Amino acid sequence: VGYSGGKDSTAVLQLVWTALEQL
Question: What pTM, to 2 d.p., does this model score?
Fold first, then answer.
């Protein structure tokens, strides 16, 4: 992830992972 933030990137990855699991 090209985000300049540790916590922000982690939160985004969790959201993406959850969305992928729903697919």
Answer: 0.45
- The pLDDT tens digits along the chain (23 residues) read 555 666 777 888 888 889 999 98
Task: Name the token pair of 22.
Answer: 């729903």
- What distance lies between CA 10 and its chain's CA centroid? 5
C-alpha span between 18 and 16 (Å, rounded): 5
Residue 1 near residue 12 (C-beta atoms within 8 A) = yes
11-22 burial code (b ≥16 CB/10 A, e <16): eeeeeeeeeeee
